[in-house]
Specification:
Length: 122
């Protein structure tokens, strides 16, 4: 009987696996990594949306300048962005990530040298 008890103890000592403390340590480490990573990812998402909106602005401005060069526009003339799409200067209506930055109108400015610039407004 004594050998059975001894062999039972040796089986427990040879058993492989993680203890509860080791599992808790792993969970804490994963929590720390997540606490660092989640704000960084959210920050990157916010920055990418901001730069996407800026790129959308540039695309619409370039389309508006092409429209202004192809058509007779006057200084301070204003058109809707939908007109750029219906005339073929934009393939689709632009979509801004931040609705507060959404623009719907283009105002043309012509300087003394005849250079056309387009300003986007709400």
């Amino acid at each position: 009987m004594e050998t059975a008890v001894q062999s039972g103890k040796s089986m427990l000592k040879n058993k492989k696996g993680l203890t509860l403390i080791e599992l808790l340590a792993i969970i804490v480490i994963i929590g720390i990594i997540a606490a660092i990573a989640i704000p960084a990812v959210n920050n990157m998402i916010s920055k990418s949306k901001t730069s996407s909106d800026a790129a959308t602005d540039r695309i619409v401005q370039e389309a508006a300048v092409r429209y202004g060069m192809d058509n007779t526009v006057t200084d301070d003339q204003e058109i809707n962005i939908t007109e750029l799409q219906t005339k073929g200067y934009l393939t689709t209506l632009p979509d801004w990530n931040d609705t507060a930055k959404k623009k719907t109108k283009v105002t043309f400015n012509i300087d003394a040298n005849g250079v056309i610039t387009a300003t986007l407004t709400k």
